[in-house]
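#structure-requests
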Amino acid sequence: MYAIVAGAGKVGANLARSLLRMGHEVTLIEQSQYRFDRLQGELEHQILLGDATELHVLELAGIARPPDLVLAVTGDDEDNLIICQIAREGYRVPKVVARVNDPRNQEHFDLLGIGQTVCATANILGLVEHEVPEHGIVRLLELRKENLEIVELQVGRDSPAAGKRVAGLTLPDGSRLISVLRNGKSDLAHDATVLRPGDQVLAVVEPGKEDQLFRVLVRR
């Protein structure tokens, strides 16, 4: 596989190293002379000095081949957006992945159809929510192409679902229970599964219907 990685900060540099260790061909692009100089001795011809939002720099990196993958992981969301747009629409790169530094910018990536994004802030917040015993609903994974989300909810003592079988729940359309974690043991959710207070339930749901699912499983 040939990959272009835009941005040689800690994220980009480590991605490039990992891909190289896996035996892939990589070109890392960095516009900072300082970062370029630090990595050139290690990466030699596999790092390129330049601005990855400029066409001639991307051309030097071999985007016209085209690469199998472009990873835009700079610290600037606008640059990452531009890089992905150029790669996808200008050079028909089959797969682009963008780093989203500010979660408030996620909608801009979504509107332009860049579905493969990674936001460290959102991921860390999800982990924090997961560790809070009395959380409401935790968004674990967003499947944008499928228009689905995987979420986690905890059944409370006063939950309308407590003591009921899965088959007896009126779940919103476009949702389904996946598994139930109880006393450290996880089992697939079947129609005969009875929910108990304290159960942690994984579910798949269409975006926008999380509140309906919350009212069924947690509290009205």
